[in-house]
Every structure is written in structure tokens, then in C-alpha cells.
Amino acid sequence: MAVTLKKVLSELGESMVTDIKKQIKKDRSHLKEANSTLLRSLTYSLDGNQLTIVAPEAPYEFIVDKGRDPGAYVPVASIKKWISEKNIKAKDVAQDRLPYAIVNSIYNKGIDGINFSENTLNKFSPIIAQSIGIEYQKELERIMKEIKQITNM
Asked: Which of 30, 49, 52 minimizes the C-alpha distance to 39?
């Protein structure tokens, strides 16, 4: 049963990761996978019968997903690093003031999340229930046949 269930979970993991990437690309249409750490590192892992979607190189995954409420400052060093990595150029403010403008904007407005985890779970819940249920049903039927064979001998 573990092999079959593992296959089902692997297929679900691949499908869910693909769906999440599509949501991120749609919401953040300027992103390209080649220069997006989140898109590149988004994957799934299996630990026994547990499927987990992870982005090990993108610790900010939660913020992209759920957003960030206004009223808290983001570390300026993090914003400076992000600006440098993404080679972002200022338009309406001096380049050296850009990190502070972004920090203040986040403090005042927050960051809207995409809500990709809930969207994906809602989309895949029926598939998950059906796929796993079917595999358990097949395994139970196989076990019942084996029991009948043993008891009929």
C-alpha cells in the first residue's frame, strides 16, 4: 500500500506545486522562474504518508502566501538585499532612499498575499479525498481477497 499511496501523493505534490507556481506567476506577472527564488525552489516532500509543499530557499514564502499586515517595520537590510538581488531601480525617489520608501510603504499599507495555499487546498481537496480514498479502497480489497484465500485453504 505504501508504494501506491506514495505514488498518489507524489502525483498530487507535483500537481499542487504546478498550481501554486501558476498562481504566483499570474499574480506577480513580472516574475520569471529563472530569477525568482520562490518559483525555483518551490517543491514538495514526502515523509511517510505526509505531503508537504516547501520552498527551502525562500523563507518569505509565507508572506507571499498570506501577506503582511501594516504596522510593523521590515528590516531595512532585508529590503536592501532584495533590491540588490533583483536589481531594482528607483523611479520616483533617489536610489539610496528606495529601501526606506519600501519599508515605509510596507509599514503603512502592508503586503497583500496571494493566498495560494488555501486556494490550492480548496482546489485539490476533492481530488485528494478521492485519490487517497480509492487507493485505500483498492488496498483493503486486496487484503480482503488475501484473507479469503488464506481462510478458504
From this structure: 30
Cell numbers given for 36: 525568482
The Cα–Cα gap between 115 and 37 comes to 18
Task: Supply the DSSP symbol for 89.
Answer: -
- What gap in Å lies between CA 40 and CA 17, rounded to an integer? 11
DSSP letter at 34 equals G
Select from 106, 112, 36 the least CA-distant residue to 75. 106
> What is the Cα 10 distance to its own chain's centre?
15
The secondary element (H helix, E strand) that includes residue 105 is: helix 98-109
Pick from 81, 122, 120, 117: nearest CA to 98 = 81
Residue 68 has pLDDT above 90, yes or no: yes
Q: Residue 51 belongs to what H/E stretch?
A: strand 50-54
8 phi/psi in degrees, rounded to 5: -60, -45
Grid cell locating 49:
504518508
Dist CA 116 CA 124 (whole Å): 12
Q: What is the pTM of this model?
A: 0.74
Looking at per-residue pLDDT, the higher value among 32 and 122 belongs to 122
Distances (CA, A) of 6 to 3, 50, 116, 125: 5, 9, 24, 17
